[in-house]
Amino acid sequence: MGFKGSCIHGEKNWLQGMMQSFLERCIRVMKKLTGYIYIVLGVLLLGISAYIVKANLDENASAKEASDTFLAGVIEQVPDTVLASEDHGDMPVVDVDGRSFIGTVQIPSLGLLLPIQSEWGKENARVSVCRYMGSAYENDLIIAGHNYIEHFGNLNQLVTGDTVIVTDMNGKSFYYEVVNIETLGAYDVEEMEAGEWDLTLFTCTVGGANRVTVRCEATGQVSETGDVPDVIKAAEESKHIRK
Fold first, then answer.
1. Which residues of the chain form beta strands (DSSP E)?
2. Domain holding 208: CATH number?
3. What is the Cβ-side half-sphere exposure of residue 127, based on CA atoms within 13 angstroms?
4. Closest Cα partner for 203 from 154, 141, 139?
5. 106: Cβ–Cβ under 8 A, 6 or more apart, which residues?
6. Whole-structure pTM value
7. Residue 185 DSSP SS3
8. What DSSP designation does 137 have?
9. Does 79 reside within a domain?
10. pLDDT averaged over 10-residue windows placed end to end, the chain, 243 residues
11. 243 lies in a domain?
């Protein structure tokens, strides 16, 4: 090989070395950039997660405060003694700050005492659980609530045999026992309303894909006319009533 050939061969080797070195530097830079991108994305995801958690906590706190406030207004209108009633048809309604309520629902095992609005609605459900349909007098009452922790968010923790108490605005309490817990699809309306359950409680799962549904049967225990309403004592002991 002549001198010229040797030079050309040397130039090729030099160019190849330069190219390899350049590519290696590019790869190192890209790895660093990729690492930075992952760090930035991680920080962003953590920030978004923290925001969502805080928003949920704030919404839960707001829902609890609203429900507690309405509960106090409902309890104030419960008579000092249980009134005589015919116990058929619709349930009596009282007004609290422009909203209508039919009474309260108490779930001792969850530490809950909540006011029941007379009609279901998205805005209504932001402040308290609501009657979806039916009446305690007709043994077909269905109560719906959001999955806020201080509303119906822990319904899935109930077990068969747990007690649920519904009290009307005459101060009369109706006692029920949990007999079945099932998960229904979000659009299984007919299934929700099906059956001859005396009382049904339901709430959506996180994300709203399904509904936790609690079926109850009446035990036959009710308050006696003239007695002090059971809900008065429950309210005195409840964390939902400001002392």
1. 94-96, 99-107, 112-117, 129-133, 141-144, 163-168, 173-185, 199-204, 210-222
2. 2.40.260.10
3. 16
4. 154
5. 112, 113, 114, 164, 165, 166, 167, 231, 234
6. 0.77
7. strand
8. G
9. yes
10. 49 67 74 70 65 59 88 95 89 96 96 96 93 96 93 94 97 97 84 88 86 96 94 84 53
11. no
